[in-house]
Design goal:
heterodimer, A: 80 residues, alpha+beta, SH3 type barrels, 6-stranded antiparallel β-sheet, 2 helices, B: 736 residues, alpha/beta, Rossmann fold, Helix Hairpins, two-stranded antiparallel sheet, 66% helix, elongated
Chain lengths: 80, 736
């Protein structure tokens, strides 16, 4: 169960959010969208230029930039 | 205020973006919906009326779609202010049931304020399709508010929601107690003490519920902190209290109060879910949208599809739009002809026909194009595709200090030729950050809007007859290039600062309803028509006056009359001496007469106000290679870019006033004018692309961003574009 930054996650990989180290508007937005510790996520895709990344969580799809994913640490569940 | 009358209920409709709120709103209010503005800010405020079968009247307001009620964006502040300050009798909170947990996050916050909430679970058809079971009765029981299942796009549930709202307003006379969520052992005691101090001091309690205010202090909500500081010394004391707690949390738990609050809110929601509200197979299950996205946002195929769609929109707008555009132009031509035959020759007729009808007609001719373009754009937007475009392009736009969502204002403004900067500037509202928004608003008018398209069609036909399409394409690329580079410059000078998060939902693809698309489109087209009927009408008449007055003094007119008579006498004498040369003589005479007429109208135009301004500016504009005729047209085009062509037509057709003569097309006349060297043409095209946004756009920018940024955009882009035009002219002169 390695702990990695969300930026490093590969497409189709699943993980559990362990911490969100962002405050201010960025942290607020991340949390408002439901990305809080304990949330199960899956990377479903990356934009053509590899950034932003698209995640699936809580039944919907969310996008964020790699620079924003840096604030989110995840525990990877399994490697497909 | 509005809730005072018993017979008329005041209902606010809240919900997260993409939850189907406008569909519901349109369905229940029908034709009574009116779009207005919140005072002082540019967020749309849609209001409408509904009547229940028992005769109860309801006044509904559609709140901006927000995920939360913090101070993250202007929309969120507005939404919560309506709930807090206007105190609607009921808040209908529509949820996208396919993402129930995230949607309930807003519901909790609405209930924490103490509003009387009625929950609508929308998209229930999709929920069933995804094999998710939601027990709405259980949810209602746990939340203690009515929960109605809906499917707004099929018209299901709207009436039931209104009836539930009516019942809810009727059964509980006083306001319900605000929802009380526990925020855990670290924060609950703090909250309690804050609440107590707020209550004891009566601190802002006339405006806000005490506990809610305490939560906002812990969340460090900038808007409320500022209000608190103004309200009294307790504000700063509370802030100190919060700072202590915040410090403690950071040291011991490595977290922030705000994060703890969000955790507990989601924890509360998870608790609800576990109590039998929802059963499903897999949270992360792929659905049809994911399958579409696998293709549509694919690394190689995605951009190709995007280009194909954008090109198809462009193609359809211009080929299909050409027919109705022709009809509108014919109609105005007929109107002009009719008025001309009814009125006696003179200034009044000239003003009505050449000023008003021609000017407004030219603009109205674009209405079909704008209608078709917006139909497609609104369709793609409501479908969910535009979000994917922002997603795919963010990497590039972010490099230039913009945001993926800047692409919409750019495209609407004319990133695909034929847009209009007025709705484009308004579309920039969807940008959350002030900085990216200002940069987008400054640069979006660089795009080739429908009005500029006419000017460029004229210029490319005149100066690049071998391949006008390619020239046009280059101009569009130039517009994008300048917009991006200028945005980058702005974001590194005037509006420096960090970028806004790109944390966005990619909503599931949903086929929009026809009514929704039509209403949306009509709202935008109507703005354009209003512009044609008001500003452009006034501008056309003003321009007509500028190129008509002051008229040539009588002795000068007489001078040209003498010249004409002399030419005629000469011809008669010539004929008398050389019988049999009629053809040659009449040809010479005609040529002479045209020359005289040209000279006269040149003199006339130079004598007018416009001519004087144009000449006055020539010493300056010479550095960019503009003639005084172009100056006149460019000044006129500030009122509305369409005017460039009509003014050029006036300026040049005055040079050939031989009536009913097969006068050469305007393009040909321009091409024949030696003033237009290649460098002058390049410089004119660049200047026309970049210089001050038209009057209506400036008005829109001022409304959206305030006077400072509006005037900065106006003068800034004027100076910027002139500098570039001079550069283009001087550099390209080295090569020609």
């Amino acid at each position: 169960m390695p702990l990695i930054s969300m930026r490093k996650m590969k497409v189709n990989q699943k993980a559990i959010v362990t911490s969100v180290q962002a405050d201010g508007p960025l942290g607020r937005r991340i949390r408002d969208m439901g990305l809080i510790p304990g949330t199960e996520i899956q990377v479903v895709g990356r934009a053509p230029l590899h950034d932003p990344v698209a995640l699936r969580l809580r039944g919907f799809t969310l996008t964020l930039r790699n620079s924003e994913a840096d604030f989110i640490q995840c525990t990877v569940e399994d490697t497909p | 205020m509005s809730g005072k009358e018993k017979s008329r209920l005041y209902v606010a409709v809240a919900g997260q973006p993409n939850c189907g709120k406008s569909t519901l709103f349109n369905a229940v209010t029908g034709s009574t919906a009116r779009v207005g503005n919140y005072p002082g800010i540019s967020v749309d405020r849609t209001e409408g009326e509904a009547r229940l079968p028992d005769g109860t009247k309801m006044h509904l307001v559609d709140l901006p779609g927000t995920y939360s009620l913090t101070a993250y964006s202007q929309d969120e502040v507005i939404a919560r202010n309506v709930i807090l300050k206007e105190k609607p009798d009921v808040v209908i909170n529509l949820l996208d049931a396919t993402s129930l947990e995230r949607s309930l996050y807003l519901t909790l916050q609405t209930m924490e304020i103490g509003a009387r909430v009625v929950v609508g679970l929308n998209m229930m058809d999709e929920v069933k399709k995804r094999h998710i079971q939601i027990d709405s009765a259980q949810l209602a029981k746990l939340l203690g508010v009515p929960v109605i299942e809906c499917c707004a796009r099929r018209g299901i549930g709207g009436r039931e929601l209104l009836e539930a709202a009516q019942k809810s307003a009727g059964t509980r006379e006083s306001c319900p107690a605000p929802l009380h969520i526990s925020y855990g052992p670290d924060l609950d005691p703090v909250l309690e003490s804050l609440e107590k101090r707020i209550n004891e001091a009566g601190f802002l309690t006339d405006r806000y519920p005490a506990r809610w205010l305490a939560i906002k202090y812990l969340e460090e909500d900038e808007v409320l902190l500022q209000e608190g500081r103004r309200a009294g010394p307790l504000g700063e004391e509370l802030e100190r209290c919060v700072a202590e707690v915040s410090d403690m949390l950071r040291k011991t738990r490595n977290t922030y109060p705000e994060a703890v609050i969000a955790d507990y809110r989601y924890g509360f929601i998870n608790g609800l879910m576990r109590q039998g509200v929802i059963t499903r197979e897999d949270d992360l299950r792929f659905n049809h949208s994911d399958k579409i996205d696998a293709l549509v946002t694919h690394r190689l195929i995605g951009p190709l599809i995007m280009c194909a769609i954008l090109y198809a929109m462009f193609y359809i707008t211009f080929t299909l739009g050409a027919y109705p555009q022709g009809w509108v132009e014919d109609a105005f031509g007929w109107l002009g002809g009719t008025v001309e035959s009814l009125l006696p020759d003179g200034l009044l007729r000239s003003m009505i026909v050449n000023g008003a009808i021609d000017g407004v007609g030219a603009v109205m001719g674009f209405t079909p194009l704008i209608l078709i373009m917006f139909l497609m754009l609104v369709f793609l937007e409501d479908l969910g595709y535009m979000g994917r475009v922002a997603y795919m392009l963010d990497r590039i736009l972010h490099t230039f200090g913009l945001h993926g969502a800047s692409v919409m204002p750019f495209i609407i403004s004319g990133g695909l030729p034929g847009g209009c900067a007025v709705p484009g500037v308004m579309a920039a509202r969807s940008l959350r950050s002030k900085r990216e928004r200002l940069a987008t608003i400054f640069t979006a008018p660089f795009m080739v809007c429908g009005a500029k398209t006419t000017a460029f069609i004229l210029l490319t036909a005149a100066f690049f007859p071998e391949n006008p399409t390619r020239a046009m394409f280059v101009i569009v690329l130039l517009a994008w290039g300048f917009a991006l580079i200028t945005a980058w410059l702005l974001r590194h000078t005037v509006i420096k600062g960090p970028s806004t998060p790109f944390i966005m939902e990619l909503p599931p693809y949903r086929l929009p309803t026809l009514l929704g698309v039509l209403i949306h489109t009509w709202d935008r087209v109507w703005q354009y028509i209003k512009k044609a009927g008001t500003v452009i009408l006034a501008a056309s008449i003003l321009m007509w006056a500028l190129i008509t007055f002051p008229q040539l003094p009588a002795e000068q007119t007489a001078h040209y009359e003498t010249l004409r008579r002399a030419a005629q006498t000469e011809a008669t004498q010539h004929l008398a001496t050389n019988a049999g040369a009629e053809e040659k003589v009449s040809a010479t005479l005609e040529k002479r007469l045209i020359e005289i007429a040209d000279a006269e109208s040149q003199a006339t135009l130079q004598h007018t106000a416009a001519g004087r301004i144009g000449r006055f500016l020539e010493p300056v504009t010479r550095y960019a290679g503009f003639s005084w005729q172009a100056n006149i047209a460019l000044i006129g085009a500030f009122t509305a870019k369409e005017v460039f062509v009509s003014t050029m037509a006036t300026v040049y057709s005055m040079g050939s006033t031989v009536e009913d003569e097969e006068s050469p097309a305007l393009s040909a006349r321009l091409a024949a004018d030696p003033a237009y060297t290649r460098p002058a043409v390049y410089s004119l095209i660049v200047f026309l692309l970049l210089y001050a946004p038209c009057l209506v756009t400036v008005a829109a920018i001022i409304r959206e961003t305030g006077w400072n940024w509006g005037l900065f955009t106006l003068y800034g882009s004027l100076a910027y574009s002139f500098a570039i035009a001079v550069l283009v002219y001087q550099v390209s002169r080295l090569f020609y």
